[in-house]
């Protein structure tokens, strides 16, 4: 699998990671800022939460890591949390924003 194919596979797996408070996946919510894959198929995901005080942050990050690890060929996985830049509802998928009336 090429790095781009692996990056796409990671993106698709992250669509399975649900923010249980909101009921939407982290990709749709715009919580995933960056995905990097190196030459050894190590994956690093930079993501955020809707708020720095999110009580589910640890569980969501753990779920993301576990789902990425199920992708064949992935070696090390690192999910890093950042709040720079802070998340805003503008990052939500435009179709979902419209459905939510945002």
TrEMBL record:
In this chain the MIP18 family-like domain maps to 7-79
A Pfam family that this protein carries is FeS_assembly_P
Segments traversing the membrane: none
Top-level lineage group: Bacteria
Q: What is this protein called?
A: Metal-sulfur cluster biosynthetic enzyme
**Organism, as annotated:** Fervidobacterium pennivorans (strain DSM 9078 / Ven5)
């Amino acid at each position: 699998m090429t790095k781009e194919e692996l990056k796409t596979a990671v993106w698709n797996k992250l669509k399975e990671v649900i923010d249980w408070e909101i009921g939407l996946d982290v990709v749709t919510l715009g919580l995933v800022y960056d995905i990097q894959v190196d030459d050894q198929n190590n994956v690093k995901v930079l993501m955020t939460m809707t708020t720095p005080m999110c009580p589910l942050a640890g569980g969501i990050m753990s779920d993301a890591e576990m789902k990425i690890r199920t992708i064949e060929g992935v070696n090390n996985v690192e999910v890093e949390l950042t709040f720079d830049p802070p998340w805003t509802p503008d990052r939500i998928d435009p179709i979902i924003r419209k459905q939510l009336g945002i």
